[in-house]
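Researcher: I'm preparing a figure for a lab meeting and need a structural model of a single chain. I don't have an experimental structure, so a prediction will have to do for now. The sequence is pasted below. Please return the structure as tokens so I can convert it later.
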Amino acid sequence: MLVVMRGAGDLASGIALRLRRAGMEVVMCDIAVPTAVRRTVAFSEAIRLGQAKVEDQLARRAKNAADALRIARAGEVAVLVDPEGRVIEELRPHVVVDAILAKRNLGTTKGMAPVVIGVGPGFTAPVDCHAAVETKRGHELGRVYYEGTPIANTGVPGIIAGHGADRVLRAPADGSFEPVLKIGDVVKAGDVAAYVAGEPLPCTIDGVLRGLLQEGVPVTRGMKSGDIDPRGNPAHCLTVSDKARAIGGGVLEAILHFSPQLLA
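Model: Understood. Here is the structure written out token by token.
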């Protein structure tokens, strides 16, 4: 079964990992300069580096649709620079998953594939997708909506070990991102994680630097540029998060729910 995913950030990658482990072929599409901060668990890094590994799964950058299909059929995740998802029409996948997480629908429609799944707010099943999956931390995380829409974006990050908005690092100015620290570093509040246009980006809390943008990424003031895990375990930087696994389980449920018509 071929699945094309829009988005290749850390949550999308957690979904892709679950689908690969369930035996599906996965092709992912993302922008030319990805802005995922949890880069150690994001297949989008394959765009920059040529290949990327999340846990035990390898991904490779594909040149085009044919190359992507070859990579996917070999058991690896294929990653394309294709923000509009144009490859979908050429590949004609069984399933399309929109995991861009833009908090709104950026052009995904039910007509793109026999099964179309929207991840997070901005999708309404069965209007613009066959199913939508909840992404908000809490009781409903990973829930599949076959009718209805995920909880609207609150703009407030979910709570981890008592910390919410204060665990997210945001660019202090417009400019090029210049990291000082690296993902996995143990940090204290006040440590400088990066500079933007000469302005420091200090760590907001104590913990482990779980995410940080790569060098040279153009950012705007207030843009999410990193995050700190207050639980303080560096090993968590190298594994898919509980949130990503829950969402991945919801996507897998939705695919299996519709599998009789896919296999008919």
